[in-house]
Amino acid sequence: MKPAKFDYVSPSTVEAAIEALVASKGEGKLLAGGQSLLPLLNFRMARPSVLIDLNRIDGLSYIEDREDRIAIGALTRHSDLECSPLVASRLPVMAAAMRHVAHLAIRNRGTIGGSLSHADPAAELPMLSAFYNARISIQGPNGLRAVAAEEFFIDALTSCLEPDEMVVEAEFPILEHDGWAFEEIARRFGDFALASVALSVRRSGSSLEDARIAVMGVADTPLRLKEAERELVALTLDEQAPELFSEVVASKVLPNDDLHASGEYRTHLLKELSKRALRTALASKEHAA
Ligand SMILES: Cc1cc2nc3c(=O)[nH]c(=O)nc-3n(C[C@H](O)[C@H](O)[C@H](O)COP(=O)(O)OP(=O)(O)OC[C@H]3O[C@@H](n4cnc5c(N)ncnc54)[C@H](O)[C@@H]3O)c2cc1C
């Protein structure tokens, strides 16, 4: 199908983009990489009166080291994150996850701002923002506000963005951990995930000092599992630990049945991926810091 008729503007500043959003009275749509929006237009599931193309705005594509966090501009492409040495050394779980995002052609166009705003519950960047506890900066007609990832995602394909607001940046705090893993299962490599587990740990002898866990594909939003993090830290790291950990993770989430998989199957995947993730994280020689 072809999209319904729309006007097109390509502002050169964030302020002009916000003005265009305000002028559209909730009927305008921002266009970033177009990898989610264009299919929606073609299927006429979205019929905006105006497309506001962000691609002529300078200064929204960057990956910046701010010592205890990495700041990423909204127009930064998925492939820039995948290939960035800074991301690889400071946000290794993100580096590992990015190759699971769709296919190379899509990663060359898709942006972090578009992915966060689209809020797909099986998308890697929303999950990574929950995992790292990212701070998402949002520009609107009344100025800039910042929201923690856990408050940003409201429901499947729904964020806390108002119709006249746009994401301009996300800041990812560095985890001072010494082992990590990202495990995902999709029907075919590059498809949206049926389930994923991100894990990062700091070891201390036969137990852990700290752990970070997030999952996706198993609920309407990505989830950071804070209770499971505390229970993992209380575990002794013996042969039973991966099995016990997988039970802990599965006990925190109750996936629904949908077109792609039953809830029961997703729980099975979650357990398997959690086991793999803990084994990999404990064997990992990589250092996040
Ligand atoms: C075949 C296929 C497979 C895919 N597989 C995956 C996958 O496995 N994992 C994954 O994570 N993604 C996947 N994607 C989605 C892809 O990652 C998209 O690039 C991403 O979801 C949207 O980014 P975009 O820049 O293309 O946004 P667009 O498509 O341009 O926009 C998406 C939405 O966000 C809004 N928007 C865009 N930028 C902003 C902003 N700065 N502030 C506020 N709103 C904004 C738009 O108005 C629109 O509503 C897939 C896409 C396709 C077509």
Would you mind describing this structure in some detail?
Helix content is 35%, strand content 25%. The N and C termini lie far apart (48 Å). The protein folds into 3 domains: 7-53, 2-Layer Sandwich (Uridine Diphospho-n-acetylenolpyruvylglucosamine Reductase, domain 2); 63-173, Uridine Diphospho-n-acetylenolpyruvylglucosamine Reductase, domain 3, CATH 3.30.465; 179-283, 2-Layer Sandwich (Enolase-like, domain 1). The longest helix is centred in the C-terminal third of the chain and has 21 residues, at 263-283. The protein is α+β, with helices and mostly antiparallel strands. The radius of gyration is 19 Å and the shape is globular. A hairpin with a 2-residue loop joins strand 6 (135-140) and strand 7. The chain has a 5-stranded antiparallel beta sheet with strand order 4-5-10-6-7. A 4-stranded antiparallel beta sheet has the order 11-12-13-14. It binds flavin-adenine dinucleotide (FAD).
